Amino acid sequence: MARQRPAPELPPCYAIVQPGLEEIAGEEIAQRLGGEVKKTMRGLLVFRVPELTPELLELRTTEDVFLLGWGTDQLTYRAEDLERIRRWTSHEVRWDQLLRLHHGIHPKPKGKPTYHLVTQMTGKHGYLRRDARKALAQGLAGKFPESWRPAEENAAIEVWLTIDGPSAVCGLRLSDRTMRHRTYKAEHLPASLRPTVAAALVHLADIRSGQVVVDPMCGAGTIVAEVLDAHRAERGLTVLGGDRERAAVRAASANLRRLSPALLACWEATRLPLADLSIDRLVSNPPFGKQLSNPEEIGPLYRCMIPEYDRVLKRGGIAVLLVSEAAVLKEAARAAGWKLLRQVPMQVLGQRALISVWRKPF
Ligand SMILES: C[S@@+](CC[C@H](N)C(=O)[O-])C[C@H]1O[C@@H](n2cnc3c(N)ncnc32)[C@H](O)[C@@H]1O
Asked: Does the CB atom of residue 285 touch ligand 1 within 6 A?
């Protein structure tokens, strides 16, 4: 009997995530793909998946996913790093294998393929970003067919080098801009959440079919859209959203147009037109202190909002809230008798914020 060759091992993947969401993204990778996180750095996860399928591109809490070429956490910050970048890129990566895997997910483009190099650099290094890019380009010399042309936009292949302090990863990008921006976002408001952050809130809400979910301060509807999009296969889900600003409700309505229907309303979140004990999941990001004309209003707002949320939540219901003023929120939630299940610190637009998950007692 002919001996079968063992399948060559898949290279690891990595994902870029919003700093703070690493653990949640790791949970999503495990649940959806049966993947296993191998290493976590600030804003980045290296993971393995049992097989490479287009489902990888459906992750919701990641900004981008890549096939890993090489990675290190031992950069020296000195110019000698450039020689390493060149050498690792040239000698330590099977670019032919990565390209084959990339083509397995994205059909090979017609005509002459184009490629684009992206270099990101954070931290004070003794060389410039353009020097790192040059080292990357030198390491890639001869790795792609001669006929391939460089392109600044819409290239078929993107090779990324991301340097953050002593760490760096280099790989082939599998996702495109629709992973982080989605396809539903037609309207954007200044305080709109990134879809990946909204997706993290929705992940934490543990939504089940048949439930009633509400975002009482929905702004442009990012959370509502993420609930609908992530749970499109589920039956009987009722999703409600509202905001006191008409312009926000209009923006939400435009963003939800291509998703399944949600009930949107212009309302005051501290006097919701909803029955007592009628909501299973409440997922929201109330305004941050900075977004109010007077930051002193944040305490009174949270103290009015939580008793109202408590009134409409069913016993055992879950609230997931992203706020900047965590101490005020905790005080109000504890006063309502809610139990804190989990908290995830993160940054939103450079500001410290906290996602907290609460259960109303049975
Ligand atoms: C941080 S934004 C929400 C952003 C939203 N998650 C998105 O992605 O677009 C907060 C929203 O709360 C609304 N808001 C503030 N106070 C409110 C209140 N008392 N009742 C209803 N909506 C309120 C604001 O109009 C604003 O749209």
From this structure: yes
Q: Which of 223, 243, 304 to mutate to test the pocket of ligand 1 (most atoms within 8 A of CB)?
A: 243
pLDDT tens, residue by residue, 2-26: 445 545 589 999 999 999 999 999 9
191 lines ligand 1 (CB under 6 A): yes
Q: Residue 293's pLDDT is what?
A: 64
- Within this chain, do residues 67 and 203 fall inside the same structural domain, yes or no? no
Give the Cα separation of 301 and 287 in Å (integer). Answer: 9
Residues 154 and 268 in one domain: no
Where is the domain boundary, 180, 208, 228?
Answer: 180
For residue 193, the CA-to-ligand 1 centroid distance in Å is: 11
Residues 308 and 192 in one domain: yes
Q: 329-356, pLDDT tens digit by residue?
A: 999 999 999 999 999 999 988 889 999 9
Please enumerate in sequence order all residues whose Cβ is within 8 A of that of 6, keeping only pairs 6 or more positions apart, or say none. none
Q: Is 297 in the pocket of ligand 1 (CB under 6 A)?
A: no
Residue 51: which domain range? 13-180
The sign of the torsion formed by the CA atoms of 27, 31, 32, 37 equals positive
Atom of ligand 1 nearest to the CA of 248: 27
The residue assigned the tokens 């139990």 is: 339
- Is the distance from the beta carbon of residue 45 to the nearest atom of ligand 1 less than 6 Å? no
Counting the structural domains of the chain, the total is 2
pTM > 0.90: yes
**Ligand 1 proximity of 287 Cβ (cutoff 6 Å):** yes
Q: In 3-state terms, the chain is what percent helix, strand and coil (to 5)?
A: 35, 30, 40
Half-sphere exposure of 218 (CA within 13 A, CB side): 35
Tell me the CA–centroid distance for residue 219 and ligand 1, in Å. Answer: 5
Q: Is the CB of 326 under 6 A from ligand 1?
A: no
Residues 140 and 196 in one domain: no
